[in-house]
Amino acid sequence: MVGAFKNVFGEDLSISSGPWCWIRGCLKNMEIVKWMTITGKGWEIATYIVTAFLYIYLKYYMIKRRRREHAPDLRYSQISMHLRDDDENYVLLWFVLYLLRIWGTARYGIFVFRVIHGKDVYNFDETDMVLMHLQSIGDSAQAFCNCLLFCVKDTTVRRGIWRNLCWRERDRQLRDYNQIH
Asked: Which of 8, 14, 86, 118 is deepest in the core (most CB within 10 A)?
C-alpha cells in the first residue's frame, strides 16, 4: 500500500531488471534498493529466516521426542492425533522455497553490492543473465513444486483427486447410459 501511495510501482523498461519490473526505473539506485527491499525481497529474506528457524526447531523437537520415547522411527502421526504421516512432507517446503527462490536473492545481493560500491548497475553480464533465467524459472516453478508436495505426494489429497476424477467419469457414463435407455 505504501509503495502504491508513494508511486514507486511501474515499468522500468530495462533488460537487467527481469522479474523485478515492479519498481519504477526512474528512481535513484538507493531508492530502487529501498523499495525492492520493502515490497518484495525483504519479505522473502524474512521468510528464509523464519522457515529456517521453524525447520531447525521442528527437527530439534522431533529428535528430542524420539530420544525421550526411545523410538528412532517416531512418525508425526504418533505425536499428535491432528497430524498425519504425510504431514512430514510439508517440512520440505523450506527446501523448495530456498532452492527455487535463492537465484533472485543472489541477484538482489549483487545489485545491492553494485549500488553500494558505485559500480555500474546496468552492466548486464553473463552472471546476471544466468541468474535472471534461473530466477524466472524458480519463481514460476514454486507453485508447481508446491502442488507436487501438497497434491501429488500427499496420499489423502491424491486419493481425493483420483476419487473425484473416477466419480465424474462414472457419472458421465451413467448419464450416457440413461440417455440411451
From this structure: 8
Residue with cell 507453485: 143
Total-model pTM: 0.67
- Distance set, CA 9 to CA 35, 93, 103, 115 (Å): 9, 30, 22, 20
Measuring CA to CA, how many Å separate 123 from each of 46, 80, 101, 113, 115? 28, 54, 23, 13, 12
Query: Are 100 and 106 in contact, with CB atoms under 8 Å apart?
Result: no
Record the cell numbers describing residue 10, joined without a space. Answer: 511501474
Distances (CA, A) of 15 to 115, 128, 132: 17, 10, 10
SS (H, E, C) 68-136: HCCCCCCCHHHHCCCCCHHHHHHHHHHHHHHHHHHHHHHHHHHHHHHHHCCCCCCCCCHHHHHHHHHHH
Nearest to 109 by CA among 93, 97, 94, 127: 127
Cell triple for 153? 505426494
For the chain, what is the total number of helices (H) and then of strands (E)? Answer: 7, 0
Say which residue the cell 534461473 belongs to: 134
- Integer Cα distance of 43 and 37 in angstroms: 7
